[in-house]
Amino acid sequence: MNWKKLLSAKRWGNEDRFAGNEKEARSEFQRDYDRIIFSSPFRRLQNKTQVFPLPGSVFVHNRLTHSLEVASVGRSLGTIFYNRIKEIDPNVDETIPLLAEIGNIIASACLAHDLGNPAFGHSGESAISHYFTTGDGKVYQDRVTEAEWQDLINFEGNANALRILTHAFAGKGTGGFALTYATLASIAKYPCASIAGHDKTNINTKKYGFFQAEQCGFKKIADEMGLIKVSDEPLVYKRHPLVYLVEAADDICYNIIDLEDAHRLKILTYQEVENLLLPLCNDVKLPERLSEMEDDDAKITLMRAKSISTLIGQCSQVFYNNQEAILSGDFNKSLLDAIQEPFLSIMKYIERISIKKIYNYSSVVQIEVAGYKVMGGLLEEFIPAYLNNESKYHKKLVELIPNQFKTKATDDYTKILCVLDFVSGMTDIYAVEMFRKIKGISFPSMS
């Protein structure tokens, strides 16, 4: 793979507009960022669970604030890489004109990386899959292909994000968000079909990155940029190099900021958080500075900033040092898993503590259980209604589905995806309210 092709500024659905016009394309990646941040799917992230239940009396991060912070970290990672290349090769802007835009490409991809996540965090993904594996949705297995079935029983937010960004929803035009190819490829952590997305030994196939419905589209993007193809059947590619930086930004943010939220919710004490973060700060003068501060939240904010700065430096160094392996598709671990000691061991310990004390905390588990009930309940109503539409009740339910999520296609797989587009796009609050109303638990207001 080479940077000239990898930084393609072609736009999805509008490929010819800026093709070959590098001077114009320098600002195209900033336009990607703006298109995402002003979009409805992005705004809805403010009412989607990151880890802790929403809403609450104490502010914690949601998917929107998380995505903004990831974009900030991602831009820094990209800018550091460009500056290092520029130091060695002052003429790099002439040989690779769009390399200076790496920070903007990564920031845009970071903003979009969680767009496909349904309500209730990762439990929402599991609930959708559960509906097809052990719920009422099992009856559809014989009505779709094996590859399509794998999409449904392993519903993946990463693949759903690509669908949101590229699918021509009814009445919305033909180009989706019309983002650049480089930005679209940079969100594909697992550039393979679902039927291949079970191999945990390879970083690009731990999960999957596109539904069967978007496979031809992703192939078009990947081939345009020269991604390394591993196989045709099933379709598997090596990662776009910038995926590593987008992934690192995400990993850094949720590992560190979940600790901050846990302290605000009194799940972890100040001393527990200090013991975890202070060794990451890499600042011998920091303990003295902390001793002069009285507000525990302010102390943790400072340590959080210092920790993120350390990890940005570590991950950017790994990326820079391993360019050859990354460009050849041979780097088989995340950047955060390749940082130096003692920081690697510290991060592994933070991960263990987070699983034990944060992700298994009672309110977190409760929202996961609620997610199963709500998401499963919505699917068991809307999917049979949209596929069969054989009763007055079904027709009423179908009327509740916005026109943008409907299709003229007649095959079951496409129609099921349309319902998943509708349900997975719901916020936590909207999903709960819709569930209550169609189940008769509450009644809509007549005002």
Automatic annotation (TrEMBL):
| Highest taxon in the source lineage | Bacteria
Molecular-function GO terms, alphabetical: dGTPase activity
Task: List the SUPFAM superfamilies.
Answer: HD-domain/PDEase-like
What name is this protein filed under?
Answer: Dehydrogenase
What the entry lists under NCBIfam families is as follows: dGTP_triPase (TIGR01353), PRK01096.1 (NF002205)
Q: Species name for this entry?
A: Pedobacter cryoconitis
> An example of a Gene Ontology BP annotation on this entry?
dGTP catabolic process
Which keywords does UniProt give here? Hydrolase
Entry-linked InterPro entries: dGTP_triP_hydro_central_sf, dGTP_triphosphohydrolase_C, dGTPase, dGTPase-like, HD/PDEase_dom, HD_domain, PHydrolase_assoc_dom
Q: Which residues form the HD domain?
A: 63-255
